[in-house]
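Notes from the 1:1 (GR / supervisor)

We went over the backlog. Supervisor wanted to see one worked example end to end before approving the batch request, so GR pasted a single chain during the call. The sequence is below; no edits were made to it. Supervisor asked that the structure be written out right there so they could see what the output format looks like.
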Amino acid sequence: MNKPLPGQAFLDNFFFHNHRIKNILSIPFLWTGIVAIIFLISHSIFGDYPLWVSWKQASGNATHFCELNRFGQGVVQPSNTWSNLGFLFVSLVILSIAKKDHDHKDRMSSANYLANYPGFSFLLGFSALYMFIGSFFYHASLTYVFQKMDQVGMYFVMTAFLAFVTYRIFPNFRYKGKKISTHKPLIVIALLIDALFNFFLWKININILFPTVVLTFFAFNLIGINVVKHSRPIGKYLHLSIVSLLTGAFIWIMDMFDIICIPTSPFQGHALWHLLCATALLANYFYFRSENYQGFDPSKMDNEAI
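Structure output shown during the call:
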């Protein structure tokens, strides 16, 4: 009897039929390390230079975080800046998975929607990458343009998740007797909603709109859990995502209102919020990636997967 290859159970549980474990993690680690080194070298050269002095300053609660604001330096909030590398790593993990899925010729034989349609993973991965860029430079500069990118990136990520959980509830529709997959229309709608957030909706108070979007996502996910009866996900990843997000929200409040605050410490609550949100994002993705849709045959759809 042949023994399973090391890590094969992991690959099977998450439908990584065209993947190797080292590629899923090592390549994102490598590129995250390279980016970190580039930023460190840049900081060593321009760290004492007032790079952002001529830029329009951020508004709202930008200066209310616990960390000491080092205005006149290349990085205004070091801990809150560097902790965003967690989002870079997560985005690269998801994008590397999406690329491998897209290259897998037999992906439509898989019993997992994300493996079938890598367009959702590309959408989420690029959204997380955009959020990393916005949040990293927002905390490095405390400028208006990157504050907007930071906020818009958060909405991009949630819109990508909403597009997918909506697909889980409405995976297809019938048109002239043919069964058509909804994945392409939903991805297009998500991009249009992203455009609305970028140009208009981001101006709404983020402390009201973002929680509303998050609660909408969880509501749709709850509906999906009850509607998609044939799904068999690994629930501990959803639990990890929820616990990480709630813990991060609690720490965000403690940091914002200076309840637990040492301004000069390298250990900052808002930085931990970034890392916990990155953990929640990846855990939630792996939860959806573990779903096994018993009895659903995506190969019978009448349009190509992307």
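Supervisor's comment: The first strand starts at residue 172 and ends at 175.
Batch request approved.
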